[in-house]
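Reopening this one. Same input as before:
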Amino acid sequence: MAYIGKTPVLGNFVKLDAISVVDGQAAYTMQNGGVNFTSYDNVNQFLVSLNGILQSPTDSFTVSGSTLTFASNLSTGDVIDFVMVLGNTLDVGTPSDNTVSLAKINDTAKTFFTRDFRNIIINGDMSIAQRGTSQASITSSGYYTVDRFKTSIDNLGTWTQSQSTDVPSGQGFAKSLKMDCTTADASPAAGDSLFLDTKFEGQNLQYLKKGTSSAESLACSFWVKTNKTGTYIVELYDQDNNRSISKSYTVSSADTWEKKTVTFAGDTTGAFDNDNAKSLNVFFWLAGGTNFTSGTLATSWGTLTNANRAVGQVNLADSTANEWYITGVQLEAGTTASDFEFLPVDVNERRCLRYYQVFNDNSDIEPLCMSQNETTQYARAVVRLPVNMRSAPSLDQVTSSNVYAIVDGTGTYTFDSFSVSRATVRQVRLLNADTVSGMTAGNASRFEGQNSTSYVAFDAEL
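Same output, byte for byte:
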């Protein structure tokens, strides 16, 4: 666009407060919203109209700091129509520390700034369940459904665990973990216990500064629903230094999703080891005998004392009518719980694969991987893992007769189990553990499952 005079500076603009002329005065204070205005680079950014005529910068007026000075004194009857400042360097001031909350940031920016893996919990939305979506008749400890959450049980009833679609409304969750009591135990023995357990590598916790005077506090938030109201316990356990702390929460309304937050002070004693081994556990207690409930709840960090771990905990195992759901589990540095950190499903899945990877799509006669016949009796495969695991994994497989097979183009040769000839965090070498006969040495082949339960998984859980 054509223009007369000097090239204007393009960008933002601001109109300054009205200025009243004083007879015989040339210098005037510039203000914006009653505050002295100095947010400009040079005089050429100014449009000044006096008595309906635009004034020439430098020739007709100058600016310095918050002062506008005309080339000659003004007199009664002169009118400063407006003072407009053009430019792209306007300063709205610097917010004081800790004055900008998420509520003052638009949703797109919130997503960018808060997606930073602040949640120590992996799979807290219960969305990944490689082992399956339901397991009945649980009476012993193990991983059964939702990844990274282990059921720890010692002689306290029988349970069905499932990945449920019952979730708090309008919170963005699609899955929860459900515990359903199918055989009750209303009178636990002293040493009986039941809790969910998730655990973490020390090298991922160094920023918590545990064992120093700057140790970070932790806020644990989650959604819970159960018919069994009353007091429940969340416990943190430092594996490296045998230290623990427990906090209680109360379920107030039966069969209603409630959000809970418990906070834990930073521990200035005992640093986490900086390695890939287990350093921190989070226990969600569901029941416990007197060995764990007879003392005083350990609400401050200290050496683990069993009697102080779960004081006040209700017995979820006392009726087959009892069930308990949890989702949206978040553990983060600080004393205030933030909104749940939703991660893309592929990111969440890869974090789980570091600890457990299963090869099985639950369909009959499915190839597990390609192999080669080393002899007439054995075939070998190298499985390259899509995600490096925490450590060289162990093998998890079906223990039954003829559930696997070698297929080499000349026949199908069934066998019972695999063995591992070598494993690293990146790959595993598999060999059929029991011999077959009649294969052609050197032929390409494949390992197959022989029914819907045939799977091979690699386990590097903490």
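So the earlier flakiness isn't reproducible anymore. For the record, The helical segments are 107-114, 290-293, 345-353.
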